[in-house]
Amino acid sequence: MFAITGDHIEYILHDLASRGIRTPDLQQNLVDHICILIEENLENGEDFEGYYRSVLLRFYREDLAEIEVETQFLLRHRQSLILLSRKQFLFCLFLLLVAPFIGYDLLWLIRVGPAYDYRIPLEVWGGSMVFSLFPSLIWLVLAFTPERFDPLLPKGAKVLLGWRPFLSVLQSPA
Amino acid sequence: MVYSSELIKGTLKTIVLKLLADNKKMYGYEITQRVKEESGDRIQITEGALYPTLHALEADGLVTTEVEYIGKRVRKYYSLSPAGKAATRERVKEIAAFMQTMTALLDIQPKTA
Hints:
The structure holds 2 protein chains of 2 kinds. Chain A is mainly α.
């Protein structure tokens, strides 16, 4: 088994960088991969540079920078962080729809106290409906659109609702 | 017969995720070798396809990493995050359904023993 030294690693790192591999993590991954191949297939005293160059050929079609380009491409076109299924999304919308009724009317009941007869006046219902208007419209459209015609949430689609968008909303200027 | 890279490209993320689900943590070279072994040499993941995919999975939060130093070199181990476990189940289900559809679409008769 060939003994890889620090100088060999420096040589490989420098060569990878000169061939267009700029992402440090990617460099480290490739160095480790190449080192394993060298250790497994080369004996001490054999031609390190020659074997290294022959091994490198199988990493690409035209040039090594393809791996860097592909990595950057995939990082730019990342998939969304998926947390909610279609059903869960509709359920959340439903909660948004009923929350004003529960919250606003409960507040009103607490405010008027137990002496009142608990019949909620029309204006309180009206206020709750205003808060529920947008979620209820979205819910109605999505819930009654057949999945195969659904323009927003096709069958099996997932919805982006991670902590990053949530944080960005909190951090955005008022 | 080695499968074409076009066929493998669409399933690579799922293959990697499933391997990580079955094995606690793995590094790049180990993944290529395991796929080769388990597929009977019919699927050979190239380094040029594997590492960009691993970086994308990491950026998506589906895998977590830890490093081990071997002298001056760094070995990066990948393991599934909780989101990765959920995504693996979804993707495996999706591929199973896709294979059923393709079997019907291409009129492939399943082999009987």
